């Protein structure tokens, strides 16, 4: 260790884990360097002792016998870095300097929010408070609601809030992504079909409107519905009756419809691509969610909210630095809240030493931007649809398959592919 002293560091060297633990209990050290395989105890025990005595301590571990398991354990334990032996002094010095910089930066830079509100819908900006007002008024009525906003702004979340604060709260909430269902299948999806109504249908299929009886149907991407089918939907909204394909008579259902779109439907009406009468019918109350870049004041709240969520989920203790938050507040967020959520998940999992700094945010922005702006792939949309229906049916696969209009076997296959079987 004398080379460190030559470099100007003051060093306390010990010869056993027992001695190391005793020193760590008595004194606070900013940096601890330990071999992994020492004696009957290991560097991982030293790591734990050092971090519990001083959570800000940078622990550098080294070993000649590194394995995936030891690296995992070191990462989980919050090691600052992990060096394979043999190494040269420059390598060790470089890591120590990095630890010093990070310790200096960590001082007083941590961003904190004292009382994060206990709610699922985060945001205290004027724009969001206006939305809460409208939701609280409209929820208890049975009025149709149209929610507009870019992808990822929280349209589905608002729809769920409306449902949960309505008289139908105990009934089902069934989301349907109209944009991801083939136009030819949308009718049987929504209205159902009798056995034999078309080739290959060997049993009755319950439509979404029936499955959601006494509840709420969330029609997402309503702007993607074909003109032809728009008339049928309009009739349904007027009569609240369904006639499954192949059925001889209609029957009444009791559902509320909340619709959403990320397209400018008003313009589609002007261009003759969307029926004006259906537009009026859906648009009894309109809620427009502002893009995240128009409510930058909410970024800090949202970031901390998601950080807490993912820290809990992954058993981490990642902390967000002020500088990181500033970069986030300046970013344009083309993918809105969903992108922020994904980024916090990634940052919480990947934060080196549990510290999310400016560089980490810039890296994350760079690595996720192309995919976010390119939009979701078809498989993603389908997977999301499946997850939603499963959530609405509390994981009941036969019902979910019914609502999705696919065989149970097909659903199992898709779940397997999604890694959810
Ligand atoms: N204000 C918010 N507070 C907390 N989470 C939000 C908020 N807005 C959106 N989210 C989350 O972001 C993700 C995307 O929201 P979602 O409602 O699916 O957006 P959209 O339907 O507009 O694409 C969801 O996980 C949702 O829970
Ligand atoms: Mg959505």
Summarize the structure.
The chain is of the alpha/beta class and 421 residues long. It has 19 helices and twelve strands. α4 (68-76) links the parallel β2 (58-63) and β3 (81-84).
Spans of 5+ residues with little confidence (pLDDT < 50)? 371-376
Sheet with the most strands: spatial strand order: 5-6-9-4-10
Helical fraction: 40-55%
The kinds of small molecule bound in this structure are:
adenosine-5'-diphosphate, magnesium ion
Pairing-aware structural class of the strands and helices? Answer: alpha/beta
CATH fold naming of the largest domain: Rossmann fold
CATH class of the largest domain equals Alpha Beta
* Total domains: 3
Task: Please report the total strand number as a whole number.
Answer: 12
Relevant CATH superfamily of the largest domain: P-loop containing nucleotide triphosphate hydrolases
Strand content: 5-15%
Which architecture of the largest domain would the CATH scheme give at its second level? 3-Layer(aba) Sandwich
Report Rg: 28 Å
Describe the structure.
With 421 residues, the chain is of the alpha/beta class. It has three domains: 105 residues, Rossmann fold, CATH 3.40.50.2300; 166 residues, 3-Layer(aba) Sandwich (Rossmann fold), CATH 3.40.50; 79 residues, Helicase, Ruva Protein, domain 3 (Orthogonal Bundle). It contains 19 helices and twelve strands. The strands form four sheets. A five-stranded parallel β-sheet has the order 5-6-9-4-10. α4 links the parallel β2 and β3. α2 packs parallel to α3, α10 crosses α12 and α18 crosses α19. The longest helix has 18 residues. About 1% of the residues have low confidence. The structure holds adenosine-5'-diphosphate (ADP) and magnesium ion (MG). The site of magnesium ion (MG) has 3 residues, from α7. Adenosine-5'-diphosphate binds next to α7 and α15.
